[in-house]
Predict the 3D structure of the following.
Amino acid sequence: MANRRERGQVITPLVLVLLFCCLNAFAAEPSKPVFPLKNTGAPFPFDFAKFGSFTGRGANDYKFKIHDRFGLAKAMGAGLYPNGSDIFKEPGFFAWKKKNPSPVSPWDHVQSGDPESDFYAWTQARDVGPGAKLLFTGQALAEGGHITQALKAYYAVLVFFPREACWSADHSFVWYVGSEALGRIQSLTQHHMEIGTQLQGARFKVINGNDTNLDNDIFVIDPGKWVRGGPPAPVDLSKLKIINQRGYGRVQLVQYENLQWQLRVDGTTMVVHGMTYNPTPVGQHISAYGLHWMTDDTDENGKADAPYDTWVDKNRNGVQDSDEPNVGDFELMKEMGVNAIRLYRTGDGTEYNPGVFKKEVLRDLYHTYGISCIMGEFLGAYTVGSGALWDEGTDYTNPVQLENMRTIIKDYVMDHRTEPYVLMWLLGNENLMPADYSGVNATRTKASVQVEAYLKFVDEIAEMIHRLDPDHPVAVGNLDLVNLEEHAKFAPHVDIFGANAYRGSSGFGGLWKSVQETFDRPLLITEYGCDAYDSRKDQENEKAQADYHEGNWNDIEFHTAGHPTEGNAIGGVIFEYLDEWWKSNQGGWDTHETTKDSAMPFPDGWASEEWYGIISQGEGRDPFLRQPRAAYYLYKDKLWKH
């Protein structure tokens, strides 16, 4: 498909995209280059002002005008704009060309596992925007271990083509290469301190960027400047004043004068080591099973099965051997370092059913295992609590449905507000996911076409919960940064911005800065993770999943208070604990599907929905069997080690 231009912006059809910028920034980069690169140009960073002039820094009319194209091309090196000719002199080019005599689709070379081939494919890409071309060339360079060249490519995006927009395949979402490039620069410099340089003062913001109307976009663009030296020293929070506080009860959120946030529980700082815990047995569907894990006792020993009776199949033979005693999921999570689980109220109808909870189990989870609960309320997602018809979805302008939800949420909060296991309340789960042609989205709500009505209802419920339960904060469970500006405008009573974010193995890019600048709240990553199935090789790949988790958690931790960053992270929630065999449902709920369910920024470019667990259910024959994957042990032995 040929590019089409609107107001000077190149619109690129993008196949492997999730929402605005959820592309895999780069895999775990090797310490040494894995393919040769002869012409790397001038040492980086260099001063772009030697080759041109900047105007409009920090404004909508920002631009860079090249005065010395030859000198700039020489400084950039082979394959990087504006150097288009020297790529033919690279040692691997003609060997690659011999293997690929016909034009290739660059979209087949997004983290293909062969960074050299990806590099040449993108330098030769046609019918894509120059910004996207630079971005993915940089990604291939990063994957191939050419870190400073990758930084050149990403910075060139920010300097030359920051306004370039890319569409999703169905043209329902748009994202900006400038935002993605800046996030990748931040991640690369963070993870490669040996480079000894940092980008300071860079900004990229799009006002009205949440819609697909590019004509109303207003940009704040400043490429910043490169400075020698590593990141600033850690922050001594004890010397800073607290300027803001949300909540004065048992759980509080405090903000320091440097704008960093902390979560405090009973006066002690807490970083959320969260887990999405839905231990649905093979053969069951979550919509029917729900929270039955609290009450199911199939072996009739007086204890709930999943929390107390599961066992670790250490040798993976599918048989519980004499040295494999029952330990239970609660103990496994405690050993891993989990301090909170995310659960959602379930149930049909428009009345609160306290019977779906077994409080003794949740109290024991807290008192014995030290694990709290993030108490989720769908707020009409999947029509839970609203009384809406499934095909019509929850309507946030319908007074009957709103009253149904008010009543049920009030009863929910009143039932649990004094319980020790409550950490916070979480409203919604990706309710603002864009709708299809009917106006209803995959979460069965109309929220994305009723943004103001939905977020005003979120705000109303948050305010109500504050009155009912002053001891616990209220978070919203959003899809990445969708309608972030509207959250700030219509939902000021929300205490925590929660984002389900899948942006690739390096972390979350500019998410932290965007929230700080637009909706200044502590940020909880309410979902992150990666499946364990490699669709390219048609086999399980535990290492790739673990590497993804490590990159994500390191980014979360690096953005907690006290680090030389935005410092607004208060933790993250892994998605998820256990493989769920019901999701794809092509072969039935007792079949572990390996389908490519959706394009995602994962190691193989795809999500296999039934393989997200950091713990496997093996062959699915024993509901008590657990096979922890490498990601589990990564958290247990390293990331969340006590």
Observations:
- DSSP finds 16 helices and 29 strands in the chain.
